[in-house]
Amino acid sequence: MNPAPHAGPGPAGRPQRSARPVNTAPSPTVTTPAGTTPAGTAAGAQTLRCRRCGQPPADPHQQILMSALWLVDGPQGPTQVRYCRACPPTGPITDLTCLICGDGPLLVGDLAAAPDDTLPAPTRAWLTTAGWRLDGPLCPTCHPAQRTPR
Question: pTM for the full model?
Answer without folding.
Answer: 0.63
